[in-house]
Specification:
It is a single chain. It contains 3 helices and 5 strands. By secondary structure, it is an alpha+beta fold. It has 2 domains: 41 residues; 65 residues, SH3 type barrels (Roll). The protein has a 5-stranded antiparallel β-sheet with strand order 4-3-2-1-5, covered by helices on one side. A hairpin with a 3-residue loop joins β2 and β3. The termini are far apart. It comes from Secundilactobacillus angelensis.
Length: 122
């Protein structure tokens, strides 16, 4: 029997490939790290702050825009557990009657806002 036949016989009859099992340790390590990160993120609570009037929020936003300051905006929106979402934080780069625009963020409708504060609350 030549070497090629011997190798082929080995793979056909003697070798047992463990398939996905041999990669399971890598998967579990990455998966476990991702689950820990997700649990840590979900454990963070963002308590609801006082609902401000539109005039009060507009004043904060106007002042922040004029001075190039950063603001933290808490939305009225809640997650599936009824918890407040993390603040939207950034410098005010523009606004109109309905929307506020923060640097690096999506536009935020004034009607969606609950509370506006100076600085970052992250």
């Amino acid at each position: 029997m030549n070497d090629d036949q011997l190798v082929q016989r080995f793979f056909d009859h003697d070798y047992r490939d463990r398939g996905v099992v041999k990669w399971q340790g890598y998967y579990l390590s990455d998966h476990t790290a991702a689950l820990k990160k997700q649990a840590k993120q979900e454990a963070k609570k963002y308590p609801a702050r006082t609902q401000q009037s539109l005039e009060e929020m507009a004043q904060f936003l106007s002042e922040a825009y004029a001075k190039g300051k950063t603001v933290s905006i808490q939305l009225n929106e809640r997650d599936l557990n009824g918890e407040c979402l993390p603040d939207i934080v950034g410098k005010v780069i523009g606004y109109d009657d309905e929307m506020v625009y923060l640097e690096g963020q999506r536009g935020v409708a004034m009607g969606e806002m609950r509370n506006v504060e100076r600085g970052s609350r992250r």
